[in-house]
Amino acid sequence: MVLKSPDIPSILVETGFISNANEANKLSSASHQQALARSINSAIKRGPRPLPR
Q1: Smallest Cα–Cα separation from 11: which of 47, 52, 51?
Q2: What is the C-alpha separation between 27 and 15, in angstroms, rounded?
Q3: Backbone phi, then psi, for 37, in 5-degree steps?
Q4: Residue-wise pLDDT tens for the chain (53 aa)?
Q5: Dihedral, 15, 17, 20, 22 alpha carbons, nearest 10
Q6: How far apart are CA 24 and CA 15, in angstroms?
Q7: What residue stretches are annotated with the MurNAc-LAA domain (predicted)?
Q8: Distance (Å, whole) CA 8 – CA 6
Q9: Pairing with 7, which of 25, 29, 31, 34 sits 20 to 30 Å away (CA)?
Q10: What is the pTM for the complete model shown?
Q11: Any idea what the Cα angle at residue 47 is, between residues 41 and 50, rounded to 5°?
Q12: Are 36 and 23 in contact (CB under 8 A)?
């Protein structure tokens, strides 16, 4: 489900596709989940950055 017009700041993070067998295997791995969580947390803490031109 995608939020439409949320009342609070929010982000949508897509970490892989379960329709892809290789990605589904990674997504079910606790170590991969931890790595994703660390990366997402780090990106949120850094905050938005301008896109390169």
Answers
A1: 47
A2: 8
A3: -60, -45
A4: 787 888 888 888 999 999 999 999 999 999 999 999 999 999 999 988 888 88
A5: 20
A6: 10
A7: 2-45
A8: 5
A9: 34
A10: 0.72
A11: 135
A12: no
DSSP 34-45: HHHHHHHHHHHH
CA dist 34 and 10 (Å) reads: 21
Structural tokens at position 42: 């780090």
Q: How far is CA 10 from the centre of its chain?
A: 12
Report the amino acid identity of residue 47. Answer: G
DSSP the chain: ---SS-SS---------TTSHHHHHHHT-HHHHHHHHHHHHHHHHH---PPP-
